[in-house]
Amino acid sequence: MTSFFTWQGLVTYSDAVLATAVITQFLKDLKLKNRLPARLVSYLAALTVLTAATFVTSGFDYRKLILNVLNAVIVALAANGAFDAVNEAQLKKLR
User: Fold this and answer.
1) How far, CA to CA in Å, does 82 sit from each of 12, 41, 85, 88?
2) Which of 8, 6, 18 shows the shortest CA–CA distance to 75?
3) Res. 65 pLDDT band, cuts 50 70 90
4) Residue 51 has what pLDDT?
């Protein structure tokens, strides 16, 4: 592994989910949690990651932007689900 993320990697499902989860957790600590629902923050993070990565790797195309709007839902839901699973495992461990 020569780097944490690459632009080519961020257009893949796994890297997009990981980046979204990390960005969401970072932003939630900046008191956005009280202003915006976590799911919306997660969706906006996913949309930003996918759009930026798509733009850098293949340029702007409105058709890809429309797909990114839809794909961001899937990525955000996966990132939220992964975070919930980790929290649940930690709660079970503490019991």
Assistant:
1) 17, 15, 5, 10
2) 18
3) very high
4) 96
